[in-house]
Each structure stands twice: as structure tokens, then as C-alpha cells.
Amino acid sequence: MKRTIRNVTVAKVIVECLKQEQIRHVFGVPGESYLPLLDAIYEEPSIEFISARHEGGASFMAEGYAKAARTCGVVLATRAVGAANLAIGVHTARQDSTPMVVFLGQVDSRFLGREGFQEVDLEAFFRPLAKWTVEIREAERVPELVQRAFRTAKTGRPGPVVVSLPEDVLWQTVPEAVMASTQVPKPAPRHEDVREVEAWLTRAKRPLVIAGGGVKWAGAEPLLRLWAETYSLPVMAAFRRHDVFPHDHPCYVGHLGLGAPEAVRETAEQADVVIALGTRLSEVTTQDYCVPSADQTLIHIDLDSDGFGKVRAPDVAIWADCREALSRLLTIAVRPSWQEWVAKRREQYEQTATLPEKPRNVYEAAMASFARHLPNNAVFTNDAGNFAGWLHTFFPFGEGHTYIGPTSGAMGYGMPAAIGAKLALPDRTVVSLSGDGGFMMTMQELETAVRYDIPIISVVFNNRMYGTIRMHQELRFPGRVIGTELGSVPFARLAECLNGLGFQVQTEQQFTEALCAALAAKRPTVIEVLADPDCLSVSTTMQELRARQSL
């Protein structure tokens, strides 16, 4: 649907573009370089501006919002200083294939190239990070280029687009602007492609599907489940795409993440035909580019044709939307002969995903409590860190669209992303998991949650160190500790100082009581979990590591 507006300011045109895209929330830190745009948002009741405490936090909120709402995230910031602060969110959106449009105020056009106040070449700065960058210097081109920004962010492999707006341009008037809704192409596989997949599966003895974010963005989880059930196909989740397939399903055989259990890696290595569905086959998903190997047949199905061959040349490359691909792959005539192998690999996976009996460590206790007390449709976000390994290993994701995590491994992501997710899904419980190192990087955004009354639950595993780096430090330079020890921070008390709720816990019972209280309170809450520094990862303690090194 098209509509035409006339004789409005550039700032107003941008807001009209946001409305055309049905954007309801934008995130940012106010800056004088884009005050006209802020004022235009003030005039538009359908759009709420969420003012964050730091541009990095704002960019994580927008990225988490985009994933939860399955729409385009929008974040605003000022010139070089604000732009540099939010660069981490742009990198995260790029590696996570998240559609996001970043509007950056820029110095007045007359001052460009003179090293004006807070000037930097924003196009050049963001070109290596973003999917596309553009600086708009003519008011008449604003409708065209802003709408192109949204189209580019959402089309093909989604990603972030950066739009630089010189301050003087925002004040100018556009004589006429045509607003048109973005139509995202959804290519379907050719008949020949479907028949080729059929032929390979007919010959297969141990096929495996690796399902990634493309399945989630297409909303194709139900079709994937139906396809797996129809042909008894085993499914693995790509790195941090846990909710792409229900974990209690007999066809689910594990997650290809950091520190994947040996049994899960064995399943991936034993497969003779690997169907990579909606995944770019990242370093982590491929276990350091080892899967699929040259001895395995690779069928790669994705919207991003540029990704074909980056890991290894596919035997079959299908450029298609995952929903369109799956709907056609349900027509293939294949009689599965691999059910016994799938059942065995499922059994091996179940052994790795079973929580130990009591007494449990505090991470295991938290996972058990989550499984018992959270609603089935609760949404998890997580920061970077080894603590996430317990979530990835033991939490039984059931319903789709319940997990949001950074494949980029960005610290500080979890809690701001939870704010964005809760705004997108206000009727769902949203829980973020962080370590003390990562949480401290964006903890100020808890005040944002309080100010806007966004009731998230933030679980902080406090072991007083950068735990993941400490583990690698101990592996490579045993006993030579530098930089990874942190001070004691009272996170629960700090939450109360910011007018949120705070609980400090150390046992399973205390954690369960705090979780239930947080669920009932419906206020921004921090549950600080006092964690044992000896517990480095799901499979390693400091004591065990040093014992092995002494042999």
C-alpha cells in the first residue's frame, strides 16, 4: 500500500517511514545532533522512544527487540561518540543476522571534513560492521534512502543498516514523499532442487539436519517439526538457536555450541548427509569448521547465497526461504531407514542433558528451578560466559520463540536484550542470565527498566571473576592468573538502590523462593547467585583441571 505526504520536514519523513514499517519502539540516548528527529517522535503517539543510559545498552535493546518481535529494531544515537558506543550492537546484529536500522546524527554538512565537533566519517567507520551504510546529504532523497535502509535490513540475510543524518538536513523540507510498505522476497526452491534433496536422502544412511536462525526468522519451526516427524530426521540446533526445535522431541539430538558434549559432536561426525537449514555454518556451529567434513554430503539451504562455500563447497546449494523450502520438501518420496541410528543418538543426547541428582551445584539448581516454575512460554536472554553452558545443556526448551542470545558472544548483552524482548512480548515472562563481569558492563540499564516499568528478571551468577577467560587462562598458563579476578559487588543491594527488587541466594531453595517472588512481584528484579569460583564450566572445575595438569 502506498501513500503520499507533502511539504514535511526530513525528521517527519523519517517518522512516517517508521510508521510505515509499524515500528512501535525505538531506542537510544538523546543527542543534540538529532533533536528534530526526537521532536518528531514526540509528536507521534504510536511510537515510544526508550531513553537508555548508554548507547551500547540501547543497541542491545533494539537487537533483542527485533529478535523477539521478528521485526526491524531501531536505535538512535549522536555523532562519533554515541555512534562508537553502539558499535557493539551493530556487530552483534551483523553476526546474529538481525534486521536493525541505526539512525546517527552527524555534524552539519557545512562542517564535514573540517574535523568538526565529534566528527568522524560514519560511513567508513561502520562499513566493515554493517550490511549497508549511507549518509544522506539531500533532503529529497530521504524517503528513498530510509525506505531502502529498512528493505536492505530485512531482505536476504537480515542485518544492520547505518544511516548518517547531517544535523542541517533534518531541518529541511521534502516537497513530496511516497511511502510504500516493504515487501520481503521469499524465494522458493526449484523443482530440480527438491528432487536432488530427495535423491540424496534416498541414498542416505545417517542424515542430519542442522537448523539455524533462518528457520526462526521465517517462522518455520512448525514446518521443521512436521518435516522431521514425516521422515524421521534427526535435528540439531545451530549455535544459540536452541528454541528452533523442541528438546523433548525424539528427533532432537543436541545443540552445536561452545563446549558441545562429545556425544553430540559424534552425532554430527557420524552423519553421512548434512542438511544445513537456515544457518551460515559459523565457527562454533561447525565446531571449528570441522563439520561437515569433506567426507560428508552437504546440502545447504539458506536465503544468503553469499554464504554458500564459506565453510566448504556444498554438494547441493539451494537459495530459498526456509518456510518455502520446507513446505516443498514435505512432498519428497523418501522411506527412512535410519530410525535405529536416530534413536541411539537421541539416547546419547538425553544422557548429556540430564541434570545430576542432588546435591547439585548452584547452576544446576537454577536450571531445575527454571524448569519447574517458569511458564512454558517464558523467554530467556543470556550474556556471554561459561554460566550459559548450563542453560544450553540442561534447560529443556519446548515451545518455539523462547530464546534470544548473541552468537557474537557480546558481554553486557543479556539484561538490555531482555528489556527489548519484554517490550516486544509484554505478556511473556522474560529472564536474563549474566555473569558478574558481563552484567556490570550494562547494569545501568536496570534503571531504564525501572523507569519504564519493564518487569524483567535478571539472574546474575557472581563468581567474582571473568570466568570464561579464567578457564582458558588456567588451561594455557596454569596458575599464572592476571586480570581475571574481580572485586565483590553487591548486585542485589544495587538493584534496590535503583528502585528494583534484589535477592541474594546461594542454595537451590533460596533460588526457588527468589524466583517465585520475582514472578509474583512483576517488577524489575535481580537475583544475585553467589557462585563457586571453582566451578569453571559444565564439565570442568578448577580442582579437576589442576589435578589433570599435575599428572
From TrEMBL:
Residues 9-123 form the Thiamine pyrophosphate enzyme N-terminal TPP-binding domain. CDD domains: TPP_enzymes, TPP_PYR_POX_like. GO terms for biological process: isoleucine biosynthetic process; L-valine biosynthetic process. Keywords: Thiamine pyrophosphate. The keyword Transmembrane helix does not apply. The keyword DNA damage does not apply. One of its GO terms (cellular component) is acetolactate synthase complex. It comes from the Bacteria. Residues 383-529 form the Thiamine pyrophosphate enzyme TPP-binding domain. One of its GO terms (molecular function) is acetolactate synthase activity. Residues 196-329 form the Thiamine pyrophosphate enzyme central domain. Belongs to the TPP enzyme family. This is Thiamine pyrophosphate protein. It comes from Geobacillus subterraneus.
